[in-house]
Amino acid sequence: MPSQKPEKIDLNTDYTCPCRRRGRLIPITLTDAFGCDRCQQIFVVEDNGYVLEQLSTTYPYKRAWRWTGNSWNVIQPRLGENYLPIALGIIFVLVIIWLPLALRLANGSSIIAWAIVAVLLAILPAIMVWLTYRR
After folding, report:
1. Residue 5 within a domain
2. pLDDT value at position 44?
3. Torsion over CA of 35, 5, 57 and 27, rounded to 10 degrees?
4. In the chain, how many domains are there?
5. Residue 66 shares a structural domain with residue 99
6. Mean per-residue pLDDT pooled into runs of 10, the chain (135 residues)
7. Residue 117: its H or E element
């Protein structure tokens, strides 16, 4: 069984692209970076040579990988571990505390408007969580 221990990334070694598009990483001269010949992404070597980080990304967090000698292992971001409980806490506060307070303080015609605003504000963190965790 291959080792799962991270190995230092050598800038002179040939690696596969971590994006799973069958590309090869080509070293970029005079930098600590690689470019993929297939997906055209640029990757920077970080963390004293143990982490490969995607330079340009549309994700809310930077994607990063560690080399184990034969494959890349994705490094999970720290924000992703705490994002779901924070979003659930926001939803809880909005629905359980703010909605009844807004309904009690609102007069007759604006109750529906306050309820719609409260529901939309409660759904917003759920959409943010969904956008963060989708692939």
Report:
1. no
2. 92
3. -10
4. 2
5. no
6. 76 86 87 88 88 75 84 76 71 74 69 75 76 66
7. helix 111-133
2 lies in a domain? Answer: no
Q: Amino acid letter at 78?
A: R
User: Do 50 and 20 share a structural domain?
Assistant: yes
Q: Are residues 69 and 111 in the same domain?
A: no
Q: For residue 7, give the DSSP letter.
A: B
Angstrom distance (rounded) from CA 65 to CA 113 = 47
Distances (CA, A) of 111 to 2, 18, 50, 104, 115: 62, 52, 56, 9, 6
Find the domain containing 111 and state its range.
79-133
Single out the residue of 54, 51, 53, 61 nearest to residue 83, CA to CA: 61
Overall pTM surpassing 0.85 (yes/no): no
Question: Contact 122/95 with Cβ under 8 angstroms?
Answer: yes
Q: Is residue 43 part of a domain?
A: yes
CA–CA dist 61, 75 (Å, integer): 11
Same domain, 51 and 63: yes
